[in-house]
Amino acid sequence: MPQLTPAGQMAMQDIAQRHGFSVDAVLSMLDSVINGNGSLAQFSHPEFGGSGQWMQGGMTMIGDMFNGYLKGRVANLCDELSRLIASQPDMVRSGSFQSQSQNGNYQVNGQSNSWASNTSFGGAANGNSLFAPPPPDWWGADLKWPNSTGGQNGMRYAWFSQARRLAVESNGNVTIYDTLDHQIGGVSQQQSGGYSVTFTSQYGYVDLSRLPVVSVNGQPVAAAPVYNPPFVPVSSNASYTSSNASSSASAAEGDIFSRIEKLAELQSRGILTMDEFAAKKAEMLSRI
């Protein structure tokens, strides 16, 4: 969790007092809401009834499932922390995290978008940040507050679940990966038979070569082009043409037999004479 300023510490104490929770419990929930980008939280604390989940504008679930009073208090706490996070510059971002800040706005794919609005929150907004800015680090200024960091054998990494990014520095090069829906939990290195690094997620081991590369040394990397196989005209493919013609012929025969059955029905109802039916039937059969 990012470090709190003195104003932030006072705000946490005020929130804890008003909601009837300890400061430790409020800080634990704040960390969970930050990891959920301000809109959801997965938490675990005795004061919240154990493990639970909260979603902005949606469900709230706690371990003490029959305690409706506690459930309402937890939901109110999460709502207030969510508003607090939204009031802080740089805390919540939408769109790509590979962007450049310009006068309170950020640009994604050439389009300018605003940060989360700085609505008033107990004096937290309007330049009075509750969170101390993190110092610049090797992964660049655009990524903040990693969930986990580590390194070994000349390689180091940092995982940012909120941004869905994984930063890896090896041989002096910093590569930023898109982690997609992987929840990184560990790292493993193998040097036998070639150097490789894999990360553990809820799906097992994830090879870095299978993750999209966002940037290398701060320079964006274009997505790989989509391969479209060349169009092959039907007339140039003899086997396809033969098969297609056979299918068309079968369909035509089925249509003729269906029409003969309809003619037979009309003849049985007296709408067609026997001679008319025989003539039409012979005409259709001649087309086969």
Characterization of the model:
31% of the residues lie in helices and 24% in strands. With 288 residues, it is an alpha+beta fold. The chain folds into three domains: 6-101, no CATH class; 148-220, no CATH class; 234-285. Helix 2 crosses helix 3. It starts with 5 loop residues before the first helix and ends with a helix.
Rg over alpha carbons: 33 Å
- For the record, the count of structural domains works out to 3
Structural class: alpha+beta
Low-confidence stretches: 94-127
Tally of alpha and pi helices: 5
Mean of residue pLDDT values: 75
What are the secondary-structure elements, in order, as H or E? HHEEEHEEEEEEEEEEEEHH
Strand content: 15-25%
Report how far the terminal alpha carbons are from each other.
79 Å
Assembly context of the chains: single chain
Q: Label the overall shape.
A: elongated
Instruction: Record the strand order, biggest sheet.
Output: 7-8-9-10-14-15
Largest sheet entry: 6 strands, antiparallel
Work out the number of β strands.
15
Which percent bin holds the helix content?
A: 25-40%
